[in-house]
């Protein structure tokens, strides 16, 4: 069960079609496995359709969307919301193979990466698959910009908690962490970065000039 979700603004931007293709993919993968967020987006989609039909008669208050999402959060999830959703279908179609059989490139220590930015022509962000070996640790780092990540397989832990499969997390230059893969399988994530990470370890920070 997912415990870490996109925030309300991200879901509204997704519903409105305002997100970049890589960010929309991250949220789509989360929605396929999270009935709670799927219910919220369904409601936002319905609300958007009504507003489009009634323009320009509808007046929207500043806190209208927050009130609607709060009401959604207070409602129990319906049993029908747990209908099976395709696992990894969208990503497998994009990559053309299972994520465990991709041509991973060893980066640092327990971390392997695969840059898939070229699958999103015209996008300014870097899109990267990252694999942290089971029980392995990633180098301590912070972020020069914003990083949006969804866990595709396994789980990792840092000072903010444990992030399991399909959990969603957004980090920025205020966050410094050293993820550790937990469980008995490799942890694979999909990340969208507006700027390269910044290594903060005593020795690894010397590699920062070479990170792109």
From TrEMBL:
Coiled coil: none annotated. SUPFAM superfamilies: RmlC-like cupins (SSF51182). Pfam families: Cupin_7. Residues 99-190 form the ChrR-like cupin domain. InterPro entries: Anti-sigma_ChrR, Anti_sigma_zinc_sf, ChrR-like_cupin_dom, RmlC-like_jellyroll, RmlC_Cupin_sf. NCBIfam families: anti_sig_ChrR. This is Anti-ECF sigma factor ChrR. The lineage of its organism: Bacteria, Pseudomonadati, Pseudomonadota, Gammaproteobacteria, Pseudomonadales.
């Amino acid at each position: 069960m997912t415990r870490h979700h996109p925030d309300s603004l991200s879901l509204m931007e997704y519903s409105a079609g305002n997100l970049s293709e890589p960010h929309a993919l991250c949220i789509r993968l989360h929605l396929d496995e999270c009935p709670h967020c799927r219910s919220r987006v369904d409601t936002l989609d319905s609300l958007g359709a009504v507003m489009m039909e009634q323009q320009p008669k509808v007046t929207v208050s500043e806190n209208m969307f927050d009130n609607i999402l709060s009401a959604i959060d207070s409602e129990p999830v319906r049993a029908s919301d747990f209908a099976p959703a395709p696992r990894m279908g969208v990503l497998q179609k994009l990559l053309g193979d299972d994520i465990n059989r991709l041509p991973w490139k060893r980066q640092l220590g327990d971390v392997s990466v695969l840059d898939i930015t070229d699958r999103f022509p015209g996008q300014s962000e870097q899109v990267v698959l990252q694999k942290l070996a089971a029980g392995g640790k990633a180098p301590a780092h912070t972020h020069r910009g914003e990083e949006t990540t969804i866990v595709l397989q396994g789980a990792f832990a840092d000072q903010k908690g444990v992030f399991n499969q399909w959990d969603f997390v957004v980090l920025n230059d205020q966050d410094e962490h050293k993820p550790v893969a937990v469980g008995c399988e490799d942890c694979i994530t999909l990340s969208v970065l507006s700027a390269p990470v910044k290594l903060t370890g005593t020795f690894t920070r010397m590699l920062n000039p070479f990170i792109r």
